[in-house]
Structures are given as C-alpha cells and as structure tokens.
Amino acid sequence: MAWSHDGWTGMSRDEQVIAAIEKVEPSVVNISTIRFERDAFLHVHPARGLGSGFIFDKLGHILTNHHITAGSREIEVALTDGRAFEGRLVGSDPANDLAVAKIDATDLPVAEMGDSNELKVGQTVIAIGNPFGLVGGPSVTVGVVSALNRHILAERVYEKLIQTDASINPGNSGGPLLDLTGKVVGINTANIPGAQSIGFAIPINTAKTVLEDIVKHGRVTRPWLGIIGIDISRELARRFNLTVDTGVMVMRVIPESPAERADLQSGDVVAAVGDAHVASMEDLQREIRTRTAGDAVSLVVVRGSDEGRVRVTI
Q1: How high is the pLDDT of residue 2?
Q2: pLDDT tens-digit map of 228-275
Q3: Which residues carry out catalysis?
Q4: Whether pLDDT at 137 is above 70
Q5: Whole-number Å distance between alpha carbons of 180 and 124
Q6: What is the CATH number of domain 3-25+110-217?
Q7: Where are the domains of the chain?
Q8: Positive or negative CA dihedral for 26, 80, 67, 87?
C-alpha cells in the first residue's frame, strides 16, 4: 500500500479513515487546566478546563487553542500511552485562537502537518479530540469540508475558517482535523457560540505562519493597521454617495491604533496600499501582512470628493 493525495491507495474509505486515525492518534493529547475565577461575591475559586491538542515537534511543543490555556495557572498534558506531564505555556495568538504549550519528554510521537490550501469542499475530514473529558482516550468524528474561508464573529472576528459537519464538541477543541492521508489540515475550535451541527477549524497554514514566532519569542509579531472596514459594493457606493465603487470603507478606527495616529476617519475609503489596488477587506489585510511591523506604508484614501495619500506606520 502507498499514500496518495486522497489516502491509502487500494483501500476502502473506512480503511482509509482507520489508517489515518491510527497514524495520528498517538500524537493527540488531553489538556487539563486550572484557572482562578471570581464569583458574584468576588470570592476566588479554582476552575478546571479541558481541551485537546497535538504534538508537532520532537521537542515536546503542543499546538492547541488559546481559549483553552488563557488565564491558566496549571496545565497538565496526558498522552494516549498513559503518560502525564506538567505543561508550560510558551505563548499564544489570541487573534487566531492558537496557543503553544511544551512538555519535557522524549520519544514523542509527532503529527504530520498538511496543506490546508489544498482542501476542497466535499473532501472527507476527521476530527480527533477528547470531548467532555470522557475517559478512554480520544474520540473521532468524520464529516466533510462543508465550506472554506468562513469569517465568524464571536468574541472577535475569526477569519478564513474551515467549516465541517464533523462534530466538534467542548473538549474536542484544540485537537487536529485530518485529511484521509492522516495529515493535520486544521485545528478544531468549539469556541463559536450558537453553531449547531457544524464545526469550525483553524487552517493549519494559518498556524504555520505563527508557530515559529511563538516558539522563538513566546509571542506573535504582526503588522496591524487598526480599522474595521466593509467592502464597497455599487449599492453601498450609491447609498453613501461615494465617488468610488470599489475599496474598503472605514466603519470604525480602533483607538490608539496606527490608523488613528494617521488621522484616518470613519467614512474614509481605502482604495490602495502603495501601488496595489484593494477591492476588499481581504485585499487590504493581505497587503498589510506582507509588511513588517514598523514599516511606513502609503494608503490611497478617498474622503468625500477628495482623494489623497496618507502615510501610516503600521
């Protein structure tokens, strides 16, 4: 037998799913946390949290969700072989709901990362985790990719998520989402309130862009402009009497952000970054992310009937 893009060649779908699970299961971990919370009477009580994660290198680094480890005073990591270790939080990326913990151990099984850019709607995916903290090891749900590039508003905006009908329950959060070859293509997150019969996962390629920063520096450094914007459509341009019909309309400027310091205002339209035209918020974010924090960029901004360039240090 040999691996193909879609799984083990010459195997049934059930056999492919089983082989993928057996390949990755040893690297899946259960994460138990303790944090201190105040009740209505301001009394402090310990609160337990549960989640999942997976080992991604031989040094004992574990990828999980930020909301699992946030505020934790203690982290315990349990492996599927019965070993348990004290975990240490290396760093986190709240914007993408990602965190990296570390255990001091040897002979660790490591999950293989795939390429989430290769995912297709309708493709079979497998979610592994430890829902509800039940004993007996990880559990598995199987479904398909039902949508890609989902943007979800919860406590913050989560971008470019993988949507799947594979059930992702509390405790499954932080575990890997696999393709049929047993490669990790996403990180499950159950931190989206109101989602029923669908689950969401953070693309593994998103994680790859921040893992190196977290492991090396304990934090993520990314360029940031500091606006909340909306894509301009022809209908929106007519409604607000705009002189342009493409670009990003600034709905809100974040206080003390680079955008505020550059005097951007609600109602402004960002039409270009440097010489690159932007037709959507996604275009604007992509252009900003190609820069480094501290860079000065020139924005083409339309305000009313006037158009000019604004220099912003991101």
Answers
A1: 52
A2: 888 888 888 888 888 888 889 998 998 888 999 999 999 999 999 988
A3: 67, 97, 173
A4: no
A5: 7
A6: 2.40.10.120
A7: 3-25+110-217, 27-102, 227-313
A8: negative
